[in-house]
Amino acid sequence: xxxxxxxxxxxxxxxxxxxxxxxxxxxxxxxxxxxxxxxxxxxxxxxxxxxxxxxxxxxxxxxxxxxxxxxxxxxxxxxxxxxxxxxxxxxxxxxxxxxxxxxxxxxxxxxxxxxxxxxxxxxxxxxxxxxxxxxxxxxxxxxxxxxxxxxxxxxxxxxxxxxxxxxxxxxxxxxxxxxxxxxxxxxxxxxxxxxxxxxxxxxxxxxxxxxxxxxxxxxxxxxxxxxxxxxxxxxxxxxxxxxxxxxxxxxxxxxxxxxxxxxxxxxxxxxxxxxxxxxxxxxxxxxxxxxxxxxxxxxxxxxxxxxxxxxxxxxxxxxxxxxxxxxxxxxxxxxxxxxxxxxxxxxxxxxxxxxxxxxxxxxxxxxxxxxxxxxxxxxxxxxxxxxxxxxxxxxxxxxxxxxx
Length: 404
Prior knowledge:
Elements: H1 16-19, E1 35-36, H2 39-50, H3 54-61, E2 97-100, E3 106-109, H4 121-126, E4 133-136, E5 148-151, E6 154-155, E7 167-169, E8 171-173, E9 177-179, H5 185-193, H6 199-209, E10 221-222, H7 225-243, E11 261-264, E12 273-276, E13 281-284, E14 287-290, H8 294-297, E15 300-301, E16 304-305, H9 306-315, H10 333-351, H11 353-360, E17 365-366, H12 368-373
Parallel strand pairs: 2-6
Antiparallel strand pairs: 1-3, 2-3, 4-5, 4-7, 8-9, 10-17, 11-14, 12-13, 13-14, 15-16
């Protein structure tokens, strides 16, 4: 087949940046107190802040160069929050939204533009019930773990180690319109593989086949249709696991005999997390969860163990006096449910590592020259810019409507 070679080096494989060219930098929240693992905490922090006045409110707010209580800021797209200067805010807490706060850690965010240093409004404009966000992980040489993660929740783009990666929405417009795929790629792959290739197929293949590199995530494209089909099917399963039932899918579950259960109650304020390998038990002080597969415990992203990071985000001591110090008086039941689901997600993903490794050993691969010959590369500049989304009004500062 023309444009195919058995030995395509990794640095000749196309970058994800070339296949899904529109990307957005990670959010810069600016203040940690606007994120929490539970909604009640955020509402309590809001009430404490709007109940303060003058210098106390400013100190609790934690001003930065980008945001102070006197900043004049438009509302985030799709959010019904106040736009008066926060120094005069006295209204109720806005409804928190789900946030993918780094890999595998879904928390809650106050979606108020006055509180976020750099919120990336272009992401909020396309966030809806049909959107998938691909988050490229920071490159750490030799580190194990997936190069790409997928979430239905708005991601902040945090990476546990290394330089934060980019955020790539699957669609450039709301409602699943205009795939974020380089023009010409879908027709080319459809012809090569003998069937219609969709944006969801490209996403699935990338999730299964992406390889980290210093230049960015590389996504080798196979020459054989059977390899493509195998990779797309694997990528769909990996994506479904990560989405955790979003968009009408099924929540991830291990077989009955392997599902983790709470064997001893988790204490009100656990301070340590440990793994008892022989018993396949996760210990939170005297609390016990089992069975926990060793693969779930050992699951790393960017050199960081995911279960340890998830636990630390919920138990690390906060500086006294600030809004960060406001939190649950005891370990909430929903955290236990979320931990059980996280164990399940990590275990199911780890079970597929062998398939991912086998896919990486397949070939032949399509060289970048084939994409250039087909006119897919180089990427046109327009594909790297966000689409114009003008189907709704957005409230600007002090209640004025923004001009888009």
